[in-house]
Amino acid sequence: MKPTETLMPSARTTELVVEELPGEILVYDLKRHRAHCLNRTSALVWRHCDGRTPVSEVAEVLEDEYEVPADAEIVWLALDRLRKAKLLDDGTELPAEEISHSRREMVQKLAVVGGLSILLPVVASIRSPLAAQAGSSTTNAQCNQCIGVGLPCSDRPGRICVARTGKQAGTCRCQ
Amino acid sequence: MVSFGRRYGIRTTDPALIDRLVSVLPPEVKPGRPGNVACLYSLLAAGTERRGKVRRVNLLYGDEVPLTRSKNLEVVMEVLESDLQLQIAEWARGRVFVHAGVVGLGGRAILVPGSSQSGKTTLVRALVDAGATFYSDEYAVLDLRGRVHPYRKHLSVRDGRGGARKIHPEALGGPVEAKPLPVGLVVATSYRAGATWRPRRQSPGRAVMELLAHTVSARRKPERALTTLRLATSGALVLKGVRGDAEAMVDSLLSKAAAHEPSAA
Questions:
Q1: Dihedral of CA A140/A141/A143/A147: which sign?
Q2: What percent of chain A is modeled with pLDDT above 70?
Q3: A172: which chain B residues are within 8 Å (Cβ-Cβ)?
Q4: Are A171 and A146 within 8 A, CB to CB?
């Protein structure tokens, strides 16, 4: 079977918060506490991950959307990035040969046709911060260099970075 | 006491410390009627009396959890202030707290999200010196429509030798606003000596991610955080890049903020 005749995998649907934006999708993974921003291409591919649509058909949709030649390589590349971000059904396996072939093909095509770069699928991810990480704090190592005097030490719960006095003036510690 | 719809309590073994305790309360904390509280802080003061060779320390608990112990009362007060502030930021009803500096200009807010030591305060001060109005040095407090409210905590200004001193917002000289503002500009930046400010404009999705990385309740209420941040950034210009001296980039920021026509939310 040709790779373009392969059907799309299924998108993960559980424990996700999805926020649609113009041309992008934001996905929050409640299980791993990671947030992902899918650009236009990866968003479009993700929306078509229904387990039924052929990969070749999604490539055609991309072509219509961007009005530039698009083929299955782009779709495979997007699927690979979505799988790494854990946004496909658990246990989804993609054909390794197609993925590495897609990467090589894309690099070669981009070198020849620069305009194709708008097609590149991107999944930008961040780890969602713990409350204490999102607040003002310093670390023990920073405090030892007197960076963050007066702030809580995030890696020493209940301690605060204090400038020492007396014989130890000029040094600091989390206490 | 009550803050953003949640009740907190503080008790101490030393009544002489009550004024000190009141002085470290974060902004937007109001007196409340006695009753059930979400968190009860207990300060067991060391006092001045010394019994033989026994060293007496101040103990601070949040509910039954020991938060800190120290002979130095200042340290205990700092931990109390910081823990209470974080509790309020994480659990506030109807508000999303983003760790960011905020100023107002021309009816819109400029947000400078960033972790500690990223130079937020320096940039906020430079913007106020250039005519912007002070909103916050610590948190951008967003309502569920994405508008920013002032959070007038004192500013912690580092003295360059590792120390920090506290300045009251009014001491900056500029007016202190109370009106909620829509977000006009988000500046995601960190300081690097000698760097030149050459920012890149961020897409709406990346803009939300920049703020989410500094949102206190991101894990507790991700759905509310994402929706609020999307609304907050929907008409805003979002720029990202490293910066050198704050003064060198302020003119560029102010002109970009003035020239940006917000898109329809």
A1: negative
A2: 83
A3: 162
A4: yes
**Inter-chain touch B226–A126, beta carbons under 8 Å:** no
- B11-37 pLDDT, tens digit per residue, is 999 999 999 898 888 888 888 888 889
Residue B50 has a CB neighbour count (10 Å cut-off) of 10
How far is Cα B198 from Cα B189, in angstroms, rounded to an integer? 10
pLDDT band at residue A117 under the 50/70/90 scheme: confident
Q: Nearest CB to B164: which of A23, A24, A149? A: A149
| pLDDT score recorded for residue B53 | 66
- Determine, for residues B212 and A39 on separate chains, whether the beta-carbon distance falls below 8 Å: no
Task: Give the Cα separation of A73 and A56 in Å (integer).
Answer: 10
Find, among B157, B129, B142, B158, the residue nearest to B100 by Cα.
Answer: B142
Indicate yes or no: pTM above 0.90.
Answer: no
The ipTM is 0.82
Residue A135 and residue B89 in contact, taking contact as beta carbons nearer than 8 Å: yes
In this predicted structure, what is the pLDDT of residue A16? 96
Residue A119 has pLDDT above 80, yes or no: yes
Chain A nearest-CA distance from B49, in A, is: 23
Partner A contacted by B214 (CB < 8 A): yes
**Which chain B positions have a beta carbon within 8 Å of A33's beta carbon?**
218-219
Residues of chain B under the 50 pLDDT cut: 264-265
The nearest alpha carbon in chain A to B91 belongs to: A131
CA B201 to chain centre: 25
CA atoms in the 13 A half-sphere facing the CB of B53: 0
Sign of CA dihedral B76, B216, B253, A148: positive
